[in-house]
């Protein structure tokens, strides 16, 4: 990943990204068997949104990220919430036994930035027996109510089409997360999918565009202002209270169950 790609994204992330539905987080935590006695690692925490979503369901969370500005925003959010979350500098490349052991490792839209095979190898000794990896993602649902969000996405797609990392992930040879997990120690996979309807605004979507890795002000430079103008123009026919229906996915990856004796 290019150095400091997310430096300018941090301030926009919490303002623009759709929030994790609390009911879905609760359902995933229950499926993972998490309790208030458990310790969780949030890897690639960004501004700490997923860590804070899980904080009420577990005992404590260690939230790590390599970008200083993301950690600053995350630490401010943790202080404001009074949550049991420790924000640390770190990345998939720095995972080691000094972090201790965890019942679960959460990742929200961050796994694709990592050397996934090596990350899973490094996580294996850090995750307790019976523990799991939880990968989160959301996509726009294919429903008529998302007309405004589709108009927004078309503008963002045009401006992100030349992003090298995005092109790599869309290439035919790119292995999806499930395939990578199936070749790891965490090959027992369960997937939870739920739809959630919410409301957003034009300005929230402006922040969202600036929070995305391919359309940050850091990457677009002088193209930033034209993109934002196009977003506002595309959304003008829809008013300011915009319906958004997302399909949320959580992949729960565990070690295979021990073979029965005899």
List the keywords:
single chain; 262 residues; Rossmann fold; 7 strands; 24% strand
**N-to-C SSE string, H for helix and E for strand:** HHEHEHEEHEHHHEHHHE
Q: Main sheet?
A: 7 strands, mixed
Rg from alpha-carbon coordinates: 19 Å
Indicate the CATH topology: Rossmann fold
Summary of the model, kept short:
The chain is of the alpha/beta class.
What does this structure look like?
By secondary structure, this protein is α/β, with parallel strands linked by helices. It has a single domain, classed as Rossmann fold (3-Layer(aba) Sandwich), CATH 3.40.50.150. Helix content is 37%, strand content 24%. The chain is built from eleven helices and seven strands. The chain has helices at 10-16, 22-31, 49-54, 68-81, 116-123, 147-160, 164-170, 177-182, 202-211, 217-220, 224-235; strands spanning 39-43, 60-65, 85-89, 102-108, 127-140, 188-200, 242-254. A seven-stranded mixed beta sheet has the order 3-2-1-4-5-7-6, sandwiched between helices. The mean pLDDT is 93.
């Amino acid at each position: 990943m290019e150095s400091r790609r997310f430096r300018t994204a941090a301030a926009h992330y919490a303002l623009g990204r759709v929030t994790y539905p609390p009911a879905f987080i609760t359902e995933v935590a229950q499926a993972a068997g998490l309790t208030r006695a458990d310790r969780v690692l949030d890897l690639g925490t960004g501004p700490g949104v997923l860590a804070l979503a899980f904080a009420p369901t577990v005992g404590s969370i260690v939230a790590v990220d390599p970008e200083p500005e993301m950690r600053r925003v995350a630490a401010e959010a943790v202080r404001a919430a009074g949550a049991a979350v420790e924000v640390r500098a770190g990345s998939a490349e720095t995972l080691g036994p000094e972090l201790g052991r965890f019942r679960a490792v959460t990742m929200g839209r961050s796994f694709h930035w990592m050397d996934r095979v090596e990350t899973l190898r490094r996580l294996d000794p850090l995750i307790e027996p019976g523990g799991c990896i939880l990968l989160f993602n959301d996509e726009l649902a294919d429903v008529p109510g998302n007309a405004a969000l589709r108009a927004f996405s078309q503008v963002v797609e045009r401006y992100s089409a030349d992003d090298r990392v995005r092109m790599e992930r869309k290439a035919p040879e790119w292995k999806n997360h499930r395939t990578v997990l199936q070749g790891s120690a965490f090959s027992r996979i369960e997937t939870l999918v739920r739809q959630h309807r919410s409301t957003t605004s034009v300005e929230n979507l402006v922040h969202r565009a600036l929070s995305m890795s391919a359309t940050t002000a850091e990457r677009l430079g002088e193209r930033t202002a034209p993109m934002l103008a196009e977003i506002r123009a595309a959304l003008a026919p829809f008013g300011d209270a915009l319906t958004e229906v997302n399909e949320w996915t959580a992949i729960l990856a565990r070690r295979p169950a021990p073979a029965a004796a005899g």
